[in-house]
Each structure stands twice: as structure tokens, then as C-alpha cells.
Fold these 4 entries.
Entry 1:
Amino acid sequence: MSRLGARLDRLSGPRRCPECGFPGPLPRDIEVKTVVRVTELDEEGRPLPMPPLEPEYCEGCGRPMPVIRMQPLDEKSRGT
């Protein structure tokens, strides 16, 4: 590639990943994976520590995929 071509590539900024759309927003048709984890309790009713989730990476660019954490439901909000 010529020096001019290389310079134009740098000036145009980072290229968008076809899978996750990085550096822009996530595409509308991206698959969202929901992971449900059950909290185990010890003998005294305290929650045991959970192992960390394995990171998932984009198949297109290798960047870590964002994780959206949700607040746990307590007994009242589940209607029990």
C-alpha cells in the first residue's frame, strides 16, 4: 500500500466490525443471550459467592461483548 493510501486509512478512522458494529452502537439485529444464575445460600441463609461469568468475544473483531447486569428479584417482586 502506498504511503498516501495508508495515511487515508488512518484519517478515515477505525473500520466498523461487521458482527458487532464497533466502534458504533450494536446493530439492531444482534442476538442477546440471557443467562440466569441461581444464588445458593449457606446454612445461615447468606448468599454464597458466585463464580465470575466467562467473557464472550465478538467473532468479527475479538472485542469483549458488553454485559448488561440486571438487579436480582426478591421474594416480594416475584409474587411468592
Entry 2:
Amino acid sequence: MDLKIKRSNIYLAIAFTFVFIKSYVLLGWYTGGDQVHYHKLYDSLAAANFSEIMALSLSLVSGAEPIYAHLMWVGAQLNFDKNIYISIFNSTLITVLFVFLRANKAPFFIYILVITNFYVLVLLTSAERLKFAYLMLVLAACVAATPGKALMLAASPFGHLQAFIMLPSIFLAYIESDIKNLVLKFKLNVRNFKYLALPALVIAAVVAMKIDSILPKALIYLQQDQSYMEVLNLVALTFVALVATRNRFRMTLVLLPMFPAVQLLGGDRVNMIAITLVFYYLTIEHRLNHPILVLMLIYFSIRGILRVKWIFNYGHGYMG
């Protein structure tokens, strides 16, 4: 047993090193797009006072989220090379994700499909703030149901506001049995709602303090044009999820909030959140080897490989 544990930890160390090198190389080639603005912010934070952090973040990257901005300030103040600093967080994110997959006995090929996944590559390269929200979400996934788990979930939107989209789905899945009792027996058990108290207080307090910077960012999201194709993509994902899952009722609850969200906020960010949720619940159900899900993951890996090609060809993750 001890040998098995040590061997698995060696694999994690190898994964950490591999992702670090991969991240550093990709970020070295990713000289355009979002990284132009993130590098400007990092350079500006090197000479900034603590009180100037959020103003710089909001003006240079439209970032109202304090966790990312303050972590970047620490790195800049310590004079870390930005690509090395970010690559450490990238490696940590993927290593923790692999710990989660290992705990849920994911097949070996899933690790390969994850590391080449389009959205994972987006997190490692252009979606710099979002990666910190995902790091907290993955850490929460690795922790048992405790106040610490609830606190990490509550903190995730302050890595990136996009994580707010995920919280209603997670809560609905958590009270699945209570919803069944309400629908079938007209009984409501309020015991689970006590776990909302700490996250709700944290979110309310921070939103109240940061409303002037959060509101403009939210309005930018709401004002973007949406299309019916984005809804169709979500419908296709829902079909895949309902075919693959063992618990269709819970999966339906998880995906229901995504439909109004995609109309308000747009398909790219909401579909990424929806895919994350589907992947999480199929992982804990040990359903990652379902053929229809594997086909979907292969599709996103092909998109991921193309993204790497575009980074090398164009200096950013988009063709042309």
C-alpha cells in the first residue's frame, strides 16, 4: 500500500513538472490577445502601492476580483518572472485536478484528454483570472463536505466573477433529495440551508465593499450579444450529460440554471461552466468512460491541439 501511494505521488510530481514546462513554453509564445493586457498589469503592479491594486486591475484588465489582483501584486513585488509565476499556479491547478481524478478512479486516458482539453488550455493561457476561481473550485471538490468546502466555493467568484454562475447549480445538486421530497411529498427540510449562511455572508460582505468595481464588470457581460447557436450547444451538452449520467434528476437540476445564464451572459463562458459541472458530476459517479462523453472529450482535445497550433502560429489562441 505504501509503495502504491509513493508511486502515485511520483506520478503527480511528474505531472506538475510537465505542466509547468508546457505552461511556460505556451506562455512564452502567447504574446498577443489577453496576455498583452495581463503583462501590462503585472508590470504596473511592480511599482504600485497596496492601495492602488484594484484600481489598476479594473483599468487594465477590467478585473474587479481581488484574489487575482492581490496575488499578482505579490509576485510583481517579489520580482518573479510573470510566466514562471503563472506557470506555478497552472501546475498546481492541474495537479490538484489529477488528485481529484485519482480519488474518483478515473481511467488513465481521461488524464490525457484533460491535459489536451480546449478549455483547460484556455485556463492555462488566456483566461488568467478564471484559473484562480477554478483552483478554488477544484480544491473544494477534493475536500469533504465541511465549512471549509463551503468557504472555498464562496471565495471562488473573487478569483473570477464567472464562478458565480456555478454556485446555484452546486446548491441545487446538494439539496437534490430535499427537492424530491418537496415535489413528491410536499415536505421541505431546511437543515441543508444552514450551510448557505457562511458563503452568503462572505459574498454579501465582499459585494457590498466592492460593488463599485463589480457592477461595471457585470454590465459588460450582460450587454454582450447572444445567439441561439449558444443555446443549441447547451442543449447538445445536456443530451450528452443525461445519456451518460446515472442520476438524471440531479443532472437536470445542475443544468437548469445554465439556460437563463446563457441568454444573459453568453455561450462561451456559460458553456465552459456547464461542461465543468457535467464533468464533475460524471466523475463522482465514475461515468467518465461512457462512450458519448469520451467522444465529446476527444472533440475538445482536437480543439485544444488546434489552439496550441494557433498559439505557435499567431501568438494567441485564435485562428488568424
Entry 3:
Amino acid sequence: MGEPHSIEETQSPTSLREFYLQQAFLKRLDAHQSISRSAEDYVRSLFHLDDNKINGHGIDAIDRSFTPPIHYEIKTGLENIIIPDTELHYQNSSVRPFLIAVKRTDNILTYKKHKNKKFIRNFNNQERLLFDFGDIFILPFEVIKDHYIVQRSKNLVEDNIKYIGKKYKNLKTLQVIINKKVKEEVDDIIRIKENGESISHDDRTNQTLTFAQAAHIIIKYGNHYRLLTKTKAFNRNYDFAVIDGPILNSSPNNYSKIFMMDYDRKIMDDLIKRLAEDNKVQEINKIKKERLQLHKEIEDKKKDWGESDDPDLEKRLNALVRWQNYKKDLFS
């Protein structure tokens, strides 16, 4: 019996096209998977963190190299991220919690609107190759709590400013009353969550944290940082670091930035050290380039599926699978 023929030799251009698409995408991607899951994989891989979720629930990542361990909540967005009041209890937990905000730079719309509601839309599988994560912001959860209180107070003051002279004596009185009310709300939510009680979606309140605000907070500069420093609770005595991260798909010669802050250098220095030792940035850069190369290849093949001889096809498909399906040995 002779050697088996290659797929290129045994299938027509049309069936080859179907084979290629199936191998690259079909049954390997969840059409309803949210982009945040990919961001979680991205961050866990970059910093060598463990997945702490059970059946999809729980904190997004954990670092067991510290005692007690460090917990990380990971969020991603194009311009900002959403901070629910139901997550502010992390700041009172027995382990040290941080928030990692990841900026997406691909501008792929992840939601569609229907009757004034947002729904995660089904992505074109080829679009997934272009998902790109840029700057990363790492902040302690006590800072997130301070931001939430300041931002919600600011928004409520703006909503009620029309009542100055009627319900409120002046702007200062309005600000004091609103700030006290927000703090009481936050304390109530933290108490409820610490008691293990559930809160319905309708009773939750969200505030946004823009990436510009996160940068202001971390590098101690800008209007939002000055707004935070006006509060007595905010602790200004922290250190920060800004280092290069992986490349950006949109500009492969430019690197994303990793912003981090804490009240001592221990955790920050450990994260910076493991990035340098594990070569994760270089490995992720390689995967990003492979994804872009695969996207270009698909575009080229669409023009003429008959020209299909490609000895590196399997390698590129494996690169896609490694990226999309998280494993502990991702990028290794």
C-alpha cells in the first residue's frame, strides 16, 4: 500500500476550503463566548496566574506564590470598564485583591442593541483573529472602591445640582450629603455580600472606570487623580511602575504599556521579574504575529482557494488553537 495522499491531493478546491475553515474554527470557538474570557486567558498567561473559577464562577485569577494568595479580577473594554458595587466587597476579603483592566485596541464591536438593551453579538470567526489587547492597568481594590465612591458622588451631584437653593443650601452642602449617601450605600452592599446574600441585577449599581482615569490614578497625574486626593480616605503614599508589554496588532513596532500601583514594591517587583524571566511577552508577540499572518492567509485564500499548497498550514492552525483554548501550558 502506498503512502496516503495529502489533503491537498485528495480534495477539490471547494471541499478543501470547507476543510480549512472547519479545522481553523468550527467547534473550537464558542460563538457566544464573551471577549472578557479571552482577556482573562491573556492576563493569566502573561503573568503566569492560575484560573480560580469553578463552573465559570469565582475570582478570575489567583497568584499562589504569595501567602495569603493574591486575587485578581480581570475586566476588558474598548474605552472603559464597568465597576459593579457588588464587587466592592473584595476589598474587605482575607486575601489581597487587585483589579486588572485590559484595554482592547481592535475596535471590533462586541455588542448589538435590541430594544435599548445590549447583547453580546455572534462574532465572525475570522474577526476573532483580530482581537487585540493593549495597555494593562493593575490597581488594588481599595483604590477601586475610592474611585467608585468619587465617581458615583460626582454623577449624583450633577444630577441634583438643579435643586440647589431648593432642596440643598449650596453646592458644598449637596456634595457632602451625596458623598455620605454613597458611602452608606457602599457599606450596605459590602455587608450584604460578606453575609453571602445575593443581589438582583436590577438592584446593582455600576460606575465606569476609563483607561485615562486609571492612568491618572496610577501615575499620580491628571484631573481624576486630583479629584481622588480631595477625599480623606484616598491614600497617596503608593509607588507605581510603567513597563513595556506585548506588541500592538495595529502597530507591530509599538508596545503596549503595563501600568501598576501598590503601597509597597513587593507584588509589583514580582510581576515585573516573572515577565522578564518567563519571556511571556516575547511568546505572546509571536502568537499575535501568527494570528495576523493566519488572517492574511485566509484573506488571500478567499481570492483563490485553488492555490492551496502550504507546508506551514498545520502550524498556523495550531497557533490559533493554542491562543483560543486556554490551557495551563498555554504558550509553552
Entry 4:
Amino acid sequence: MNYWINSNSGDYILEHDGKYYLHLISRWVDNVYFPFEKIEITKSQFEAIKGFIPIKKKKLFSRSSKKYAPTLSDGTKGRSERVRVPSISESRDKILRELGL
């Protein structure tokens, strides 16, 4: 199993046996509650999502009390937002652009 985390949102991706699962953690944004979600994504969608870095399993779950939000240019914490999953056609277009087609 492999893991990737988005340090600005806390959302993470798990890869197991060639299948990718995006885990969107629960959070409050502007007094609106977003519950935990687990979404199966394709490899091309995984490759099109930006901002995820590899992490070891033991480090992933030890960070649960951390406040996830981007650090702004003045050093303060910004707002945490959910990761946007590109559609299959958007990820296909990205791959074609990279190949120069």
C-alpha cells in the first residue's frame, strides 16, 4: 500500500493493488460541515490531481490533530478546502497535453 497526503487540506490518497482511493477528511468550512468521504479514482485522475506528496502510513495517522490549511505569504494560516477531483475527461486531456498530442 502507498499513501499520499495533501498538506494544505489533510485529504489523502491510498493505493492498494492498483486501485486508488481518495479520502476526504471531515471538516467545517464557513460553518458548513463536510463529512468524511471515500472516493475510488482512476490512475489518470490520480496523476492529474496536484499537491499530494508521498507519506508513510505511520506518519499519516499520527497527524490527525494537525490543523490543515495553507500557509499564506504573511505567515498566517489560510482556509482549508476540499480537494477537487478532476473528471476522467479532464485527466485524459492533461495526459494528451503532456504527450504533445
